[in-house]
Amino acid sequence: MDQLLYGTEVLINGLMTGVMYSLVALGFVLIYKASGVFNYAQGVLALFAALTLVGIMEGQVPFAHLINAMFGTHIENFGWNIPAVFAILLTAGVMVVLAILIEKLVLQHLVGQEPIILFMATIGLAYFLEGLGDVMWGADIKTLDVGLPQGISDVVEQTTANWFGYGFFIDRLDIWATIIAALLVAALVAFSQYTKQGRAMRAVADDHQAALSVGISLQFIWIMVWSIAGFVALVAGIMWGTKSGVQFSLSLIALKALPVLMLGGFTSIPGAIVGGLIIGVGEKLFEFIMSSPDLAGSWFGFTISATENWFAYVLALLFLVFRPQGLFGERIIERV
Amino acid sequence: MLYREAGDFKTTYRDDGQTFPITLDRLGYYAILFVAVLIVPFVINDYWASAVLLPFLIYAIASIGLNILVGYAGQVSLGTGGFMAVGAYAVYKLMTAFPEVSVVIHILLAGGITALVGIAFGLPSLRIKGFYLAVATLAAQFFLVWLFNKVPWFYNYSASGQINAPERTVLGWAVTGPAASPSAKYLICLGFVIFAAWVARNLTRGMIGRKWMAIRDMDIAAEIIGVNPLSAKMTAFGVSSFFVGIAGALLFAVYLGAAEVTEAFGINKSFLVLFMVIIGGLGSIFGSFAGAAFLVLLPVLLKNVLVGVLGWPTDLAAHIELMIVGALIIFFLIVEPHGLARLWQLVKEKLRLWPFPH
C-alpha cells in the first residue's frame, strides 16, 4: 500500500515534469510544422532567453567580459534592477529580433536545401547561440526569480495527509508551470485557429507553394513562427531556470524534448503534450520501480539507478519500431 | 608535366579504375605517404603529437566511419560518441584480460565488438527513417554511456570509475601507457588511418558501396531494383561502427591514456564527428580527412591567437571559439553544402583546364 502511495506521488511529479518537457517540445513542433526545419537550437534558445532575462533584470552590461578583456576596463553592471514583468517584455523583444536575424542571415539562404542540411544549420546555430549567450552574459550559474512561488506546496501535503495518511510532496513551481503551460497551449491553439496570421501559418504548414500562390508571405510567417518559438522558449527558460538555475545544462532539455517529439510525432501539437506526459510519467515511474529494493529488488534481484538519462530514448525507439510516424504524426506515405 | 589526364595512357582495366587517375595526384599521394611515414616520426615532438597530429588521425578514422554511414548510406547517426565508448571499453577489457596478446589485435577486436553493437542499434533503421532515426540513435548514445558508468564490471571495479590504459608494446616499442614515445603513438595511429582509408575507399567503390549509395538516394527504388535493404543497412552500420570503434579504442588507449565515459564520450563527441563529416563533405573519404583536420586545427589556432596573441582569458576564448565554430558551420552549409571536398574538387577542375580555360 505504501508503495502504491509513493508510486502515485511519483506519477503526479512525472506528470508535472512531462508538462515541462511538452513546453520545450511545443517550440520544436511549431517551427517544424511551419517551415519543415527541425530546430535543434530550441533548447539553447530557452537558455539564451533565460540568460537575457536574468541579465536585463540585474542590469548586467552585455559583453562586459569581452569589453573588459579588449580594453582593460572593469565594467560589470549598470547598477539598476528592472522589474520582472518589464524585463520579460524586453526579453520577448530580444527574441523577436533574434528570430528576424535568424531568418535573414540563415534560413533565407538555405531555402530548398535538404532537411538534414537545415537540421545541421540549426546545430550550428545552437553552438553559436551558446557561445553568444556566454560571451554576452557570462557563463556562471545564475539564479532566476521572477516571483513564481517555489517550495513544497503545504496545501497539497495537508490535504493528501488527511485523505491517505501520507502527504504528497509537490513543488508549487510545478503546479504553476502546469497552469502556465496549459494557458500557453490554449493561447496557441486559439491563435492558430481564430486569427488571420494563425490561419496563414497553418496554410504554410500544409503546403508552402500553395500558400505562396494565394499571397501569403513565407518570410513573414517564418519570422512570426520563430518569434513564437522564441517566446515559448522564454517561458520554458523561465520555468526551468527558476527550477534549477540558469546554466548550460538548461540547453540539454532540448535533448529531452526529442524523444517527446518522436513519441508524439513531429507535426502534432497535441502529440507534443501527450508525448511529454508519457515520457515524464514513464521515466519517473521506471526510475522509481527499478531503483526501489522492494520492487525491482524483489522481482529481478537487482536494482539500477539514474535510468532517466536514457529511458525516454529507448522508449521512443521501441515505440517507433511499431509506429514510425509517432502517435499523432501524419502518416508517412512513400512513393518512388 | 601539367595537371591532366591527357597523355597518361591506361593500358589495362586495372589502371583505368585507379583511385588517382591523374599522375600528379598519384605522385602527391605517394609524397604525402612518404612524408607521413618516414619523415614525420623523426621530427615529431610531444606538443605536435598531442595537440594536432594524434587527434587529427584518430578523428579522421572516426569521421571515415561516420561518413560511410551518413554520407554513403544516408543513415544519420548521433550515436558516434556511444560507439566510440564501446571501442574504448572493449579494448580496455581485452587489454586487461589478455595481456599477452598484441594490442593491435585488441584494437581490431574492439572494432569488431563495436560493429556488433552498431548493428544491434542499427536494426530499427529498417523501420525508422530520417530525423526519427537520428533521434533514435541518441538512444544508443545515452544508453551506452549510462551502461559504462553504472556497471562496474566494465571498468574493472576501479574506485574512481575511470579506465586507465596499461602499457603495451608493438615490436618492442611502447605504444600505450605513460612511457610511450610520441612517434610510436603517431605511427600506430597512422597505421590504422591508412588501413581505414584504404578499406573504406575500396569498399565504397565496389558493389557494397554502390548498394549503400542506392539506399541513400532512394531506398524504395533501390529495393525494387534488387538491393536488399536489410543487408545494405546492416553492413553500413557494421562497417561504420567498426571504424568508429577503432577510433574510440585509439582515442582512449593511445591518446588519452585514461578516460571517464561521460567526459570523453559524451554527446558532444557525436556532434563533433558529425560536423567533421559535414564540413569535410558527405560521401567523400578525402572530406573525412579535411573535416577532421579543420575541426582539430581550428580550436588550436583560435586558442593560440586569442589567448597567446591577444591575451584574453581562456574561458572567454572558449566561448568565442564556440561562436566561431557555429558560425562557420552555418557559413559552410550556406556557401558549400557539399563541404571542403567539393571545394577541393572545384579547384582540381579549374587546374585541369589551366592555363586555357576556354
UniProtKB/TrEMBL annotation, chain A:
Membrane topology field: Multi-pass membrane protein
Main localization category: membrane
Record-level GO BP terms: amino acid transport
Localization in the cell: Cell membrane
Keywords: Amino-acid transport, Cell membrane, Membrane, Transmembrane, Transmembrane helix, Transport
InterPro entries linked: ABC_transp_permease, BCAA_transport_permease
GO MF, one annotated term: transmembrane transporter activity
Annotated TM spans: 12-32, 38-57, 78-102, 114-132, 175-194, 214-241, 253-279, 299-322
Any single GO CC term annotated in Swiss-Prot or TrEMBL for this entry: plasma membrane
Family: Belongs to the binding-protein-dependent transport system permease family. LivHM subfamily.
UniProt name for this protein: Branched-chain amino acid ABC transporter permease
Species this chain originates from: Paracoccus aurantiacus
Organism phylogeny: Bacteria, Pseudomonadati, Pseudomonadota, Alphaproteobacteria, Rhodobacterales
Automatic annotation (TrEMBL), chain B:
Cellular location(s): Cell membrane
Pfam families in UniProt: BPD_transp_2
Transmembrane segments: 27-44, 50-69, 76-95, 101-123, 130-148, 183-200, 236-259, 271-296, 316-335
GO molecular function: branched-chain amino acid transmembrane transporter activity
Membrane topology: Multi-pass membrane protein
Keyword Kinase: no
Keyword Signal in annotation: no
Coiled-coil residue spans: none
UniProt keywords, alphabetically: Cell membrane, Membrane, Transmembrane, Transmembrane helix
A GO cellular-component term linked to this record: plasma membrane
Protein name: Branched-chain amino acid ABC transporter permease
